Amino acid sequence: MNPVIASLKSTASIVILSGMLALSAPAWAEEDLWEEEAAWEEAGEPVEQTISDPLEWMNRGIYSFNKFFDDYLLSPVARGYGWITPQPVKQGISNFYDNLTYPVVIVNGALQGKFSQSGSDVSRLLINSTAGLLGFFDVATHMDINEHHADLGQTFGKWGLGSGPYLVIPFLGPSGVRDGVGLVGDFFLDPITYIDHNRTRYSFRAVEIVDKRYRFLEASDILEETAIDPYAYVRSAYLQSREQAIAE
Questions:
Q1: Contact at 8 Å (CB) between 120 and 146?
Q2: Where do the structural domains in the chain lie, given as residue ranges?
Q3: Distance separating alpha carbons of residues 51 and 56, to the nearest angstrom
Q4: Residue 169: predicted pLDDT
Q5: What is the CA 192 to chain-centroid distance, rounded?
Q6: Mutual angle of helices 217-226 and 75-84, in 10-degree steps
Q7: Does the pLDDT at position 205 exceed 60?
Q8: 149 CB neighbour count, 10 Å cutoff
Q9: What φ, ψ does residue 167 adopt, rounded to 5°?
Q10: Long-range Cβ pairs for the range 197-206 (8 Å, 24+)
Q11: Which of 61, 103, 132, 174 sits a CA distance of 20 to 30 A from 166?
């Protein structure tokens, strides 16, 4: 194959898969975000907070673009995956990808000075990677070794850096300047990044994307049914979840 064409095809694949992954991660994989949504559903309105969104006109346009992408591609694929895949297999796949996040969690826990937590996370990674068969079985939880969440954006927040203006990035979803930079740093701690074989790496990414989106289908359906302004709800939920993560 012509090397120029091969390069273009490779670049296009990276853009598509990276975009889908980023959409699924900040927008759909924030567990605290959906916990906030459940609380709002009971209370009937979001919690008041001061929000810096000077580019709201642009952010809303990008939000609509991301939602179109999700509605017509990512969400249907995730629903099909949920329908055809047995539950034990889906759980094992989710466990496997959760286990792969632990290099990010361990390093950022240490950077935040949570050395005991970071040590516990090392134990969790080692146990699930061995006795748990590469993480497909969550043995560590059954041993009362709790899971934690940490990322570089949170670490920057712990160090006193502000989030900056709210941003919705194409494919990346809700973010801020601080968290956007943090995503780049976390990318280099992700084991999948270092798989040399392109097709294998893209395959791992594709399954990761679909798995993450599948996990939050029900929560996103609730958001669409109950929120008068989904953009404002997602914005408020995201910012509150980040503030809570930094305060912990």
A1: yes
A2: 3-247
A3: 11
A4: 85
A5: 15
A6: 130
A7: yes
A8: 18
A9: -135, 145
A10: 198/10, 198/13, 202/13, 202/17, 205/17, 205/18, 205/20, 205/21, 206/17, 206/20
A11: 103
Q: Is the dihedral of CA 154, 156, 160, 163 positive or negative?
A: negative
Q: Which of 144, 153, 175 is nearest to 245 (CA)?
A: 153
Retrieve residue 197's tokens.
């074989």
Query: What's the CA gap between 140 and 117, in Å, rounded?
Result: 14
Q: Tell me what pLDDT residue 50 has.
A: 67
- pLDDT one-digit tens code per residue, 24-83: 444 434 555 545 444 444 444 444 456 889 999 999 999 999 999 999 999 999 999 999
C-alpha distance from residue 27 to each of 89, 141, 167, 191, 214 (Å): 24, 26, 12, 22, 13
Give the SS3 label for residue 33.
Answer: helix
**Distance, CA of 62 to CA of 64 (rounded, Å):** 5
Give pLDDT tens digits for 141-194. Answer: 999 999 999 999 999 999 999 999 999 988 889 999 999 999 999 999 999 999
Residues whose CB is less than 8 angstroms from the CB of residue 134 and which lie 6 or more positions away in sequence, other chains included? 96, 99
Tokens describing residue 11:
């670049």
Note the maximum CA span of the chain: 59
pLDDT confidence of residue 225:
85
Q: Give the contacts of 37 (CB within 8 A, at least 6 positions apart).
A: 219, 222, 223, 226, 227, 233, 237
The per-residue pLDDT for 49 is 56
